[in-house]
Structure formats: structure tokens, C-alpha cells
Design brief:
- With 493 residues, the protein is of the alpha/beta class.
- The protein folds into 3 domains: 175 residues, Response regulator (Rossmann fold), CATH 3.40.50.2300; 240 residues, Alpha-Beta Barrel (TIM Barrel); 33 residues, no CATH class.
- Helices cover 41% and strands 15% of the residues.
- The strands form 3 sheets. Strands 2-1-3-4-5-6-7 form a 7-stranded mixed sheet, with helices on both faces. The chain has a 6-stranded parallel sheet with strand order 8-11-12-13-14-15. Strands 9-10 form a two-stranded antiparallel sheet.
- Helix 14 links the parallel strand 14 and strand 15.
- Helix 2 packs across helix 3 and helix 17 crosses helix 18.
- The protein starts with a strand and ends in a 9-residue tail after the last helix.
Length: 493
């Protein structure tokens, strides 16, 4: 069969200017391409985004189009892409996937996705999608395939759950060769020409707000250390880079694997610079490994601190406290590794005082701050609790992006939460030490990051609006398409 794997055109958030090819679709492409004619389309990286996506669909005439909706705020674009496919290739089967569709499939397929999606893949997609395509190709029934939600004549039905793949080493290396790495959208961040690599799936914790924990059923699985080196060597050679973002939810969940990774990396003679996300308790557990990680190229570790206030941490189901968080940050910085901390403002228990407490801890302890607004993602225990309490006020999924307040707190309105969010972010990145370290920091990545942030702050002060390369909003594309048509004779990029 001819299959398109599509990540629709998306808006890149200005504060981070970060974009990467979908790890899930790259894994699917590698798994499927021995049996099917597969094309991976990262439409955000196309020169004319929606226009080129339409042209690709017309030229390819796919039998099936799989569209990812991995993040809640990107669901509207997934629906728009399905609408486009439905009109341009009406005979193609349209399949949705990703964590949001897995957690909210019935509502999407019976609501805004009604008549657009034929199927939704729930959970891991490799085996489910392969079986679905095989059944469609051979005109076999699909209702017994595990891991699906089927939409037929306005009725939605879920099949049996699909067991998770136990040994990730049995999967092929993701299709890194399909990434259009020369596209400008991959070169927007402070650390240019870096490659995102997933080497594990899930996290063994059960933080109430985390859609990844819900999607992966609070379970961690990783490829072996030797397989990590294969991933890294392949991706870096293909794209002529040495900077790696291990985009796992928890790269160092297993100490045994982390030690083996250090051994394998040392023996491989690969020269890379890398960073990853970790949990506070795993940094404390692996304090003796930090110096070795730094020597092998680790330049940054991101920690999900979330808050320094006990009642807020309890609401999030985080098992940390202020002292342990500060100790983990100190251990990282003592080794010359940059500490990036992620905190969230806007829980029901938050107010200006609790936010100030958390801010002061981060200001004195951390190198970098990733500040987000608490977001109740559908399918998570946190969402269910907030929904039952009647606290969710904003239903626009496009706003579930960590930048909009979806609900008030006990003492703050949504607009007050957003005002304080921007106020604290500005306070952190206008500190005199930021300007100083922008020029003097020994770590070159630290200098680059601070220079990137200061440029962004300067543009905000001068009200210079950032324009995303290539991007055309769907509404503008659709109106132009209907009013004027589009030249479909040019070859798609």
C-alpha cells in the first residue's frame, strides 16, 4: 500500500522556537517501509506548508494517511489535515494517532473528527498500524485488531487493548534518513543542528498532570545501551551533527542502562554533546555518575521541579520536596553541567505567594528556567479532578499549550495567572547575571542559550513580532485555495 505519515503544519511557539521531526512517525516509517511504500511528511518543514501538503497528497494518491496528534494543542491542525485529505483523496483511509487521540479518541471521533477519521490507533502504533494496513490491503475485517478505535457510519467502537512491546530492541532504528534536516525550522533554537532521539518510552511515575504517564501507563521501557549508540551514530552521521537531545521522558530511569551507556559511548569513540531530562530522585541516586556523563559530553540536564510548595506538589502527585530538589540542582551544577528546571504556575492551590516561593528557589539555584502554566490534559487524573470540580473554563484545545491559563486558582483569575506567568519569566531572564554569563560563561552552550533568550526578550520589549519560516495558517490557505485555486503543476518539495 501507499502510505503517508503526516505531521501537519504547526505554529512553533516563539519563546522556545523549537521544532523536531515526530519521533513516533519516524519509528512507524522504519517499521512499515519494508512492507509498504511509505512517505514521511513533516509539513511544518515544507516551504509552503499547507499548499505543499495538498500537492503531495494529490501527487502521491495514498491508500492510507496516518496523522499524528501527539500533543493536545496540536489537535486542531490534525483535524484540519484530515479535512484536507478527505477532500483531496476521498478514497484514502484516514488514521489518527498519538497520545492525545489515544487518551481522547471517542470524543474526538464522535465530535470534531466525525466523518474525518476512519480509525484511531490507541497506544503504540507499530504493530497495530501494520495489522490494519495488512487487513485493508487484503480486504479483511479490521474489528478484531487490537489497539483501535473504529468510526463507522457515525458510530465509534473500541477494540481490545494492545499489549505494549516488551523488547524495544526488536524494533528497527527510526527512519532518521527521512528527516528534511536542512529545513530552516530545525535550526531556530540556540543549539543549532541538533538531532532529537528517543531511546525509551514512558516513565515509571504517575504524576497526575502528565499525559505521557497516562499514555504509557506509568511504565518505562528502554532500548539497550548498545542500541542507543546505534541510534546516535546513525542519526549524527546522516545529518552531520554531534549535538543530541535525548528526548525521552526519563532518559536515566535505569541506573544499569545509564552505566552501560557510558561504557558503550566511551568505547565507541563517538564525540557528541548531549542533554536529557531526568527526575530529581534519579539524579540523587546517580550523583556518582554525573562527572562521567559530563566528561562524555553531557552539557545540560533538565529537571521537572514543578513547584517548591508542598500542597501544590501533593496536587501534582510529585514525591519531591524543596531540599531534595535543591540538592539535585546543586549536584548537577557542581559538575559544570547546566541545570534547566521546569516549573508550573496555576494549580488551584497557587497564588502570588506560592509562585514567589517557587521562583525564589529557582532563581538562586538554577541556570535556566522553563516556566509553564499548569494545564489539565484530557485523559489524565488531574484533568478528571479539575473537571469534576468544575474548574476548567477554556475548552479550546489550541490553548492547551502551557502558555494559556485553562482554569483559575482559588485566589487568581485566569488573566491574573497569565499576567504573573509573564512577570516571573521576565524577572528571571532580565537578571544582571544573565547578561554577564551571556558573555563570560565557560560553557559555550550556556552562552548561546542566554544570547538566544536575550534576543527574544529584546524583541519582546521592542514589539518585534517573530515570523515563522514558511508557515501559512490553514484558514488563509483554505480561503486562498477556494477563491483562487493553486498551481498544482509544480513538483512538491
Amino acid at each position: 500500500m501507499k502510505v503517508l505519515l503526516v505531521d501537519p503544519p504547526h505554529v512553533i511557539l516563539p519563546p522556545l522556537k523549537l521544532w523536531a521531526a515526530s519521533p513516533g512517525l519516524l519509528a512507524l516509517a522504519a517499521y512499515l517501509r519494508n512492507e509498504h511504500e511509505v512517505r514521511f511528511v513533516d509539513a511544518t518543514a515544507l516551504p509552503r506548508t499547507w499548499f505543499d501538503l495538498e500537492q503531495i497528497i494529490r501527487v502521491e494518491k495514498p491508500d492510507a494517511v496516518a496523522i499524528t496528534a501527539n500533543i493536545t494543542s496540536l489537535v486542531p491542525e490534525a483535524l484540519q489535515a484530515a479535512r484536507l485529505v478527505r477532500q483531496v483523496a476521498p478514497d484514502a483511509k484516514i488514521i489518527g494517532g498519538g497520545s492525545h487521540l489515544s487518551l481522547d479518541a471517542e470524543r474526538i471521533l464522535q465530535g470534531p473528527g466525525l466523518g474525518l477519521f476512519d480509525y484511531a490507533v490507541v497506544g503504540e502504533g507499530e504493530q497495530t498500524l501494520a495489522e490494519l494496513l495488512h487487513a485493508r490491503e487484503h480486504h479483511q475485517p479490521t474489528d478484531a485488531i487490537a489497539g483501535l478505535v473504529l468510526s463507522e457510519n457515525g458510530h465509534v467502537r473500541r477494540t481490545a487493548p494492545r499489549p505494549q512491546i516488551e523488547d524495544l530492541d526488536t524494533l528497527p532504528i527510526p527512519a532518521f534518513d527521512l528527516v528534511p534536516f536542512t529545513s530552516p525550522v530545525y535550526k531556530l533554537t540556540s543549539v543549532r543542528d541538533h538531532i532529537h532521539i528517543n531511546t525509551s518510552r514512558g516513565c515509571g511515575d504517575n504524576c497526575a498532570f502528565c499525559s505521557e504517564a497516562a499514555f504509557w501507563q506509568s511504565r518505562w521501557r528502554g532500548v539497550s545501551a548498545s542500541r542507543i549508540i546505534e541510534y546516535v551514530g546513525t542519526a549524527c552521521e546522516l545529518h552531520d551533527t554531534r549535538v543530541v537531545d535525548f528526548a525521552d521522558d526519563s532518559f536515566n530511569w535505569s541506573r544499569e542502562r545509564t552505566e552501560a551507556f557510558c561504557d558503550e559511548l566511551e568505547h565507541s569513540h563517538l564525540k557528541i554533546d548531549f542533554w536529557f531530562e531526568a527526575r530529581v530522585d534519579h539524579i540523587l541516586r546517580d550523583a556518582d555518575l554525573l562527572a562521567r556523563l559530563r566528561r562524555l559530553g553531557c552539557f545540560q540536564i533538565m529537571l521537572g521541579i514543578e513547584s517548591a510548595v508542598p500542597c501544590v506538589l501533593d496536587s501534582y502527585q510529585k514525591r519531591f520536596n524543596l531540599r531534595r530538589s535543591e540538592e539535585a540542582i546543586r549536584l548537577i551544577r557542581d559538575q559544570g553541567i547546566m541545570a534547566m528546571t521546569n516549573i508550573m504556575f496555576g494549580d488551584w492551590n497557587d497564588n502570588s505567594e506560592t509562585m514567589e516561593t517557587t521562583y525564589q528557589m529557582i532563581r538562586r539555584a538554577s541556570d535556566f528556567l522553563i516556566l509553564t502554566i499548569t494545564t489539565p490534559f484530557p485523559g489524565t487524573p488531574y484533568y478528571q479532578r479539575m473537571e469534576e470540580a468544575g474548574r476548567i473554563e477554556d475548552r479550546d484545545l489550541a490553548h492547551y499549550d502551557f502558555l494559556h491559563a485553562i482554569m483559575p486558582t482559588a485566589r487568581l483569575s485566569r488573566s491574573e495567572v497569565e499576567r504573573l506567568y509573564y512577570q516571573f519569566l521576565k524577572r528571571f531572564y532580565t537578571q544582571p547575571r544573565i547578561l554577564w554569563e551571556c558573555l563570560t560563561a565557560r560553557n559555550p552552550y550556556k552562552r548561546k542559550f542566554f544570547q538566544f533568550i536575550l534576543r527574544h526578550v529584546g524583541n519582546e520589549i521592542l514589539r518585534r513580532r517573530w515570523k515563522q519560516p514558511y508557515y501559512v495558517p490553514f484558514e488563509q490557505f483554505w480561503t486562498t485555495r477556494e477563491r483562487e485555486g493553486w498551481d498544482l503543476k509544480e513538483s512538491p518539495t
